[in-house]
Amino acid sequence: LILGKISKYLCSKIFLKLTQEQSFKVDKNIIVIMENKKSLCITYFLWLFFGWFGVHHFYLGRDMQAFLWWSTLGGFLTLGWIRDLWRIPEYVDDVNEDPLYMDKLNKRMRFRDYPKFNVVRFSGELLVGYFYGFLIRLALPPDIPAIISMVLICVGITVGVHLVGNIGRDEGGFIKPFCATFCCYSILFWLSDSESGNTPNFMYCSLAATVTFNYFRKYKRVYKRHLFCHRIAILLVYMALFSSLWLSFLYFNAEITTEKGEKVKFKDSVIHFFKSPAWLEFSQTLKMIYEEGKKNGWKNLYDEFVKALDPKGEANAYKVLGLSNPSTESEIKKAYKTLVRQWHPDRFHDPEQRIAAQKQFMEVQSAYEILTNKKKSNTLDDADRTNY
Asked: Is the bond into 326 cis (omega within 30 degrees of 0)?
């Protein structure tokens, strides 16, 4: 029943928008084409294919909401994206200043000076504030002073609440929610005795900021419209700041757990990766392909790249047997027999050594099969060419 009502409402809205292609204003016998209206169909198209990134909100001029959708994976793990399914018609009416919508909005504004309480918006402020505060905590270096950490975390919580609270026709200040957040954090810091970094504290602080923001919120009387370049610049700054928090977390605090349970800093593991034999071999391979392309032309670049990837495993097989490419069939058999005797599982009595030897033994057998099959294939090709 609910889905039926939603689909009926959406179909009626789409029909009305399609029948109103352009709006005209008659003034002193002159027909003036008004500013192009936002399309409901285009909005739904952007919502369907790019909704997780908030592109449909940017199209409608709701830049804060677009940034929130981008930074929280579609409005806090796609919840906001799903809700937009039945909210988009109202968003389109808002940006187009539809007469019926504006009449209802004016009546609400005359009835009271502040918007009515919205559970969804309140929950969004609470969750996004918590998420932003927690992200800043992750991004801060371990040796940062406690007072600076406290201020920055409170700023992050308040920014999250402020962004959600100022979506659409609602607006509120920043200072009062920040003061409430800072007081709450200070009390929790004093009560917890140097354990203020616990994540539950952030939720209490976010709740304090959300309640304070909603208490002082009001209607947005003037809907400001900015130039496209200005909007893009502001949005890029927001995205750069948000991305820098994740990069700071990866650099200062991210850790990788090894198979032995040891924790290694992510930045150290990246440095070690670029010094590892795998990366050095890969970089040397790319350099070799590039030099080969400059020397013999770029037409065979794809073939050289595929060859470097070793799809048949021949290069690795030579490496396992300790041979160079090319090697004769007798050299391959000699290396195979030597390694088979060396790694035969029956020679090892320790269980762990036996498992490792069995693994190495199977690799040697696999490498030998790859190279012998290659030799057989080459022999058959030579025979075919001779017969021809």
From this structure: yes
